[in-house]
């Protein structure tokens, strides 16, 4: 066993000794710590804290004291991944690449409205720069698949946010990924 000198207020490890020291410092206390924890604290850069007998780094301490901030950060990360998932170019099941921006969606919806059943739009410029003759049905397929992709992205976001809400440790929170 080793002795850790820690601050009483935030349990920050200030120093580690082989035995209890004869001095008493205001705002600090000496507590027993395992050799393994002592080695971890001594050999790794950064601040360590001894909380409920556990050796934790600053992020872990921050999570234990106020998990909401780190959880909100994870939610923002998930939202960015969600946006990327459904706002990036999409290749329809017919093999045409479409942009996912609102202007393209409006254009495609307008083309669908003006094309007669069985009609096609010649030389439509796809997102990959190619010009293609695309039928009304193929445009409708692209719109349907785009909407489904968006619904899938939002469902995934909901699932991951529920996992964030239920995360009980920093390790669990950090493991949540798109």
Question: What can you tell me about this protein's structure?
Answer:
With 178 residues, the protein is α+β, with helices and mostly antiparallel strands. 49% of the residues lie in helices and 22% in strands. It is built from 6 helices and 9 strands; from the N terminus they run βββαββααββαββαα. It has a 3-stranded antiparallel sheet. Strands 4-5 form a two-stranded antiparallel ribbon. The chain has a two-stranded antiparallel ribbon with strand order 6-7. Strand 8 and strand 9 form a beta hairpin. Helix 2 (58-65) packs across helix 3, helix 3 (67-87) packs antiparallel against helix 5 and helix 4 (102-114) runs antiparallel to helix 5.
Largest sheet: 3 strands, antiparallel
Radius of gyration: 28 Å
Oligomerization: single chain
Helix content: 40-55%
Structural class: alpha+beta
Low-confidence residue ranges:
none
Shape: rod-shaped
Q: Helix and strand succession?
A: EEEHEEHHEEHEEHH
User: Strands of the biggest beta sheet: in what spatial order?
Assistant: 2-1-3
- Kindly state the number of beta strands: 9
In whole angstroms, the N-to-C terminal distance is 42 Å
The proportion of residues in beta strands is: 15-25%
pLDDT averaged over residues = 92
Give the count of helical stretches: 6
